[in-house]
Specification:
Helix content is about 50%, strand content about 30%. The chain is an alpha+beta fold. Strands 1-2-3-4 form a 4-stranded antiparallel sheet. The N and C termini lie far apart (about 50 Å). Mean pLDDT is about 85; it is low at about 5-15.
């Protein structure tokens, strides 16, 4: 009996990191899909990856795209976009992204995503900071 309990504990300890890795991979896929939608000026697709709270603030895809173009230029257009550190817990993911903007300036973005009632992941926020600046 003790062996079964130890085996179950071991399997759970393996499954939790695997679940987190799967959640992070899914989050990166969502972020990458939105990034690609921005690069193609596909406002409807980019908007579809935003959480309902974001969509309530920006009622139409074109309004959302305008906000991104004017407030998140390094996210909208860039030379490089590479994933950094990520953390997942309780259906929420925080993903760092290293960005080199169109002018060659380095930026750090922190994306937050949350699992929705239908099981999908949606972007709940993106904080952008010029690399090297203190928070």
């Amino acid at each position: 009996m003790r062996a079964i309990v130890l085996l179950l504990a071991f399997l759970v300890s393996i499954a939790l990191p695997a679940r987190a890795a799967d959640d992070i991979a899914a989050a990166q896929s969502v972020i990458r899909s939105q990034e690609q939608a921005f690069s193609h000026d596909d406002a409807a697709a980019a908007y579809s990856y935003a959480a309902p709270e974001i969509q309530q603030m920006f009622r139409q895809p074109d309004i959302f795209m305008y906000m991104v173009q004017n407030n998140y230029a390094p996210v909208y257009r860039h030379k490089s976009f590479e994933f950094g550190e990520a953390r997942a817990a309780d259906g929420q993911i925080a993903q760092r992204v290293h960005i080199i903007d169109a002018d060659g300036e380095a930026w750090e973005a922190l994306y937050t995503l949350e699992e929705q009632p239908d099981g999908s992941l949606k972007i709940t926020g993106c904080s952008l900071l010029k690399a090297g600046q203190a928070v």
